[in-house]
Structures are given as structure tokens and as C-alpha cells.
Amino acid sequence: MNKAFLASVIVLCVGVFWGVYWMPVRAIAALGLDGAWGTGAITLAAMLFLLPFVAGKTHLFRDTGLVGVVSIALGGAAFALYSIGFLYGKVALVVLLWFFSPVWSVLIAKFVLRWQVPILRLIAIGVGLAGLFVMLGGEGSVPVPRSLGEWMAFVGGLVWAAATAGIRLKSRVPPLPAAFIFASGATLTSLAFAPFLEPLPTIAGEDAVWVGITVLATGGLWWGLSIAGLMWATIRLDPARVGILLMPEVIFGALTAAIFAGETLSASEMIGGGLVILCGVLEVWPTKANAGHPRATKNAP
């Protein structure tokens, strides 16, 4: 099987899987690990799960260089912001603002990496910006993120776009050790935010076992297994394609939030969200004809 095709399938499956990630995050918060404490516990559990795969293999990190390692850790930091955001905003809006990241990816490709970017991807930026303005300002308000959760997703998407570019260009770390670095970056970010968002958690004795099981399962499955697959796939795909293939998360996140949390979107939010998704379609369209893979100029790394 072609590795690029397999990488695309893995990223697509990760997107579907993460579409329901908000459910264990909110369940853990309801049991007492509120705010960033829950994400910190989940990602710490992932680190423990992945530790056997990195023990005695520090040469892997030295070989990839500082930029590669930092890029992976930044990816984890971005996902931590996204994870925490689910507790402070509507699920669908948090997901949609996160998936504004392909616009950042194209801008990074053009102005930072000096890659040639097809005109259709530049048009996609305009569509994405229009979607953002409609989604956030459709009710006559200033078109900026309103809740803390929305801001976390918006900033997280920008950090993720930069991280995926660095991972693809500089990372040579195998998937499981990369997932460990990723979880480490997320843990540090979560614990840095935790004291400022919520007080130290208290968990009822009868809930402790269930909290532990949920934290371990969420850390192992979402932050261990799926992130290892994502790390393997990310270095084989251009950053914009990674962002696009993760987009089924939008649909699964919005549907499950509507069904299980009773969260619905206004007309302007749905129209704006549709434009953001269309932005993603426009960005990936040229690559199907082999016209959208950015080519490095002589100034590119």
C-alpha cells in the first residue's frame, strides 16, 4: 500500500476518533478533575503508557535535533489548548475554530517556508476568513472568539499549523517516542494553565476508581495510540492536507454534542462553519491533481 495513502487513512480515522474526545474530557471534569487538571491527568497517563517505548532511547531525540523535538512538543501544547477548550465553550465552535488551522498552514507555507502555493489555496484563505467572520460576527457582534474555550481553540489551531510544518520538515523521531514528546508538551501546557483556571481538584472517594480508569483509557487511546499514528502520518503529508483530513472531527463533534449535550448552532454559526469546511475542501482540491503540493524554493530548508 502506498505510504501517502496509508498516512491519509490514518489521519482520517484519527479525526473521526477525536470527534468524540470531548465526551471523556467532560466526564472527567464532572467527576472532579475540572479545567486543565483533567487534560493534565490524561496526558500524564499517556506519558506513563508511552514511557517503555522511550526508555534508553534518548539518541532518537538528539538525532532529530532541537527544532524537530520542539515542534512535536508544540503540537502537544496545541492539542492541550484544544482539549481544555471543550470545558469553556460549545463543542462545535471549539472544533470549528481549531479547524481554521489550514488557513494558518497555507500562510506558513507561503510566507515562512517560501513554498509555491496554488491560487486555489489562496482563494481558500479568503473563504476561510469569510467563514470566520460570519461564524463569530453573524449576530452583529465583533467577529472575534468570545469564550475562553473559543480563544483556546483559535490559538491552538495556529500553534498546530506551525507545529505540523516543523514536524514534517525536521522530525525523524519514530511514532511512539514522538507521541511521548507530544504528551509531554501537552502535560506541561495543561499544568501551566491549571492553577489559573480552576482550584485544586477534590474527588469523592467513590468516584476515584472510575476517574482513574477513564483517565488511563483516554490517555492510552487518544493521546497514546491515536497520536502515535498521527505522528507517523504527519511527516508523510503536507501540513494543509493533515488539517483537511482531520476535518471529519467537525461533523462527529457537532453531531455528538447536539445529541448528547443538547448544544446547537445558530444559523450564522452553521453558515460560517460551512464556509470554514469549504475552505478546507478548496485547499485540498489542487493536491488531488498533484498541483497543490508546495514545492520548496531555493530559500526553503
TrEMBL record:
Q: What is this protein called?
A: EamA domain-containing membrane protein RarD
InterPro entries (UniProt xref): EmrE-like
Sorted keywords for this record are: Membrane, Transmembrane, Transmembrane helix
Coiled coil spans: none
Q: Which residues cross the membrane?
A: 5-23, 35-54, 66-85, 91-112, 119-136, 148-167, 179-197, 209-235, 242-261, 267-285
